[in-house]
Input
Amino acid sequence: MSDLSPRERELVALGAAMGSNCVPCIEFHIPESRKAGLSDAEIHAAILHADKIRQVPARKTLQTALNLLPSVAAAASPAAPAAGCGCN
Output
């Protein structure tokens, strides 16, 4: 990863921290992101984007569980996800 700038490395690290639900990683990488020159607005945007992507497998897991309970799932089923990966 030597081809990545410090800013890019921290964006990757923030995404990985969000994806792994790692609180200590978030606590470490937000200050490191600031040191690398990212603004709080850029960090915020990266975290929100990573969270949208992180939620895709959670929604699919929920849908699988509900599909295995067809007699009650229809009444409690969330709206169908958008096409694609669902992060947009």
About this structure: Helices lie at 6-19, 23-35, 40-67, 70-76. The domain at 6-74 is CATH 1.20.1290.10 (AhpD-like).
